[in-house]
From TrEMBL:
<keyword id="KW-0489">Methyltransferase</keyword>
<keyword id="KW-0808">Transferase</keyword>
<dbReference type="GO" id="GO:0032259">
    <property type="term" value="P:methylation"/>
</dbReference>
<protein>
    <recommendedName>
        <fullName>Methyltransferase domain-containing protein</fullName>
    </recommendedName>
</protein>
<dbReference type="GO" id="GO:0008168">
    <property type="term" value="F:methyltransferase activity"/>
</dbReference>
<dbReference type="Pfam" id="PF13649">
    <property type="entry name" value="Methyltransf_25"/>
</dbReference>
<keyword id="KW-0949">S-adenosyl-L-methionine</keyword>
<feature type="region of interest" description="Disordered">
    <location>
        <begin position="1"/>
        <end position="28"/>
    </location>
</feature>
<dbReference type="InterPro" id="IPR041698">
    <property type="entry name" value="Methyltransf_25"/>
</dbReference>
<feature type="domain" description="Methyltransferase">
    <location>
        <begin position="61"/>
        <end position="160"/>
    </location>
</feature>
<dbReference type="InterPro" id="IPR029063">
    <property type="entry name" value="SAM-dependent_MTases_sf"/>
</dbReference>
<feature type="compositionally biased region" description="Basic and acidic residues">
    <location>
        <begin position="1"/>
        <end position="11"/>
    </location>
</feature>
Length: 416
């Protein structure tokens, strides 16, 4: 590590001890569970294991850079509620952040998380293998993301997968300009407290023309407290990956995607309804289409992706199989129906971009029936009692599932 890298690394250590990120109060665990991607248990079951890995198998998890614990607490709670066996190893080099994560786990009575202080760039010699690894919001702060990701790949169990999140450039327009300005006014050689004071003063007087003021794709500087403002604008090492750069990072680590989250967000055809343009889109390969969607939308501030080793992508369970069990990822079907317009389109927000997804009218009757227990066969029988002919149901279900899988709202449950 060079002298410059050493200084940046020391500044990172100081930052997260002074302002553990994200800013969390353990007492809030009595009020709510923070939900997100990656590392939602139903997403892991579906997007990593193809809804084919038995729920009875223990799940060994590494949270590589757990911070104040959002992913560890969410996944630990999901596993505990579902009675899923396994262990979550929550790794972070900030003792202050770990103390907050431990307190949050204590408030929930979670006993399936083991907290370990250490760096993912220097993981213990033989930590064992992990079925699932979460590395969310970490790689883009490291001196050598390629080496770190390669290190995680080496401790991934056969057939396992990872959930990653990295920053994306276009949706963070304005951030890097302010980072440069603050690097001049508040160099990283100063204490975190002094640097934060300068950042607050700059934000109070930020010109109306500053691009950050026009960017509504994130809110750390507005509602993330001191830790959020510091991490957004004062972090000493911060890089962003557009879609081609993200795929390059994965390629070099010998990984391939099973899902860019949400899949439909990376479909440019949703943004360009013109038939001639859609014809051109169809001629592009998957990566080019995803890159085009990012370039057109302009509001992607992060990329969330599930990955496995190259050549190990699971054959996903068949949603048309009679014994397949659909499951709502989080929002109950009856609530999702309320988000549909009178002309049977689902309002869906990709961040600050809202799209309208057309669905069959029968979706209103079907979604409340999806309870994680009924099979596709049983759903068809229930819909037949509501005047949907048996021979018509397969095409209807295929359209509904394809649309709602694309926005990560309906998935398939793993076998017991």
């Amino acid at each position: 590590m060079t002298g410059e890298q050493d200084r940046r690394d020391e500044a990172l250590v100081s930052q997260y001890e002074a302002y553990p990120y994200p800013e969390r109060d353990p007492r809030d665990e009595t009020k709510r569970l923070l939900i997100g991607s990656p590392s939602h248990l139903r997403e892991i079951d579906y997007w990593v294991f193809g809804a084919k890995r038995s729920r009875s198998l223990p799940l060994r998890v590494l949270i590589a850079g757990c911070g104040t614990g959002d992913a560890a607490i969410m996944l630990g709670t999901h596993m505990a509620r579902a009675g899923r066996e396994g262990e979550i190893v929550a790794l972070d080099r900030s003792e202050k952040a770990l103390s907050i994560a431990r307190a949050r786990a204590g408030m929930r009575g979670l006993e399936n998380i083991r907290f370990v202080q250490g760096s993912l760039t220097n993981i213990e010699a033989d930590p064992g293998l992990f079925d699932y690894i979460d590395c969310c919001g970490v790689l883009h702060h490291l001196p050598d993301p390629d080496a770190a990701l390669a290190g995680l790949e080496r401790i991934l169990a056969p057939g396992g997968g990872m959930g990653l999140m990295v920053y994306a450039p276009y949706g963070r327009t304005g951030v890097y300009m302010l980072q440069d300005a603050l690097a001049r006014l508040a160099p990283m050689s100063e204490s975190p407290r002094d640097r934060l004071d300068v950042a607050r003063r700059v934000m109070r007087h930020l010109p109306a023309t500053a691009w950050l003021r026009a960017n509504g794709n994130f809110g750390d500087h507005l509602s993330g407290g001191d830790a959020g403002l510091y991490d957004l604008l004062l972090n000493p090492r911060d890089r962003a990956y557009d879609v081609p750069a993200l795929f390059g990072l994965l390629d070099r680590a010998g990984l391939e995607t099973t899902c860019l989250m949400e899949p439909a967000r990376y479909d440019p055809a949703l943004l360009l309804p013109d038939p001639r343009l859609r014809t051109r889109i169809e001629e592009l390969d998957y990566r080019s289409r995803a890159a085009l969607a990012e370039e057109l939308a302009g509001n992607m501030a992060t990329h969330v992706v599930y990955v496995v080793r190259r050549g190990e992508a699971p054959e996903r369970a068949d949603p048309m199989a009679a014994d397949a069990v659909p499951v709502m990822r989080e929002i109950p079907g009856s609530e999702l129906v309320k988000q549909m317009t009178p002309d049977n389109r689902l309002r869906f927000a990709f961040g600050t971009l809202e799209v309208l997804l057309p669905l069959p009218g029968q979706t209103r009757g079907l979604l409340p029936l999806i309870d994680g227990v009924r099979t596709v066969r049983e759903l068809g029988e229930a819909m037949e009692s509501r005047s949907v002919a048996a021979k018509r149901f397969p095409a209807l279900w295929q359209e509904i599932f394809a649309t709602l899988e694309g926005v990560n709202r309906v998935l398939l449950a793993s076998p017991a």
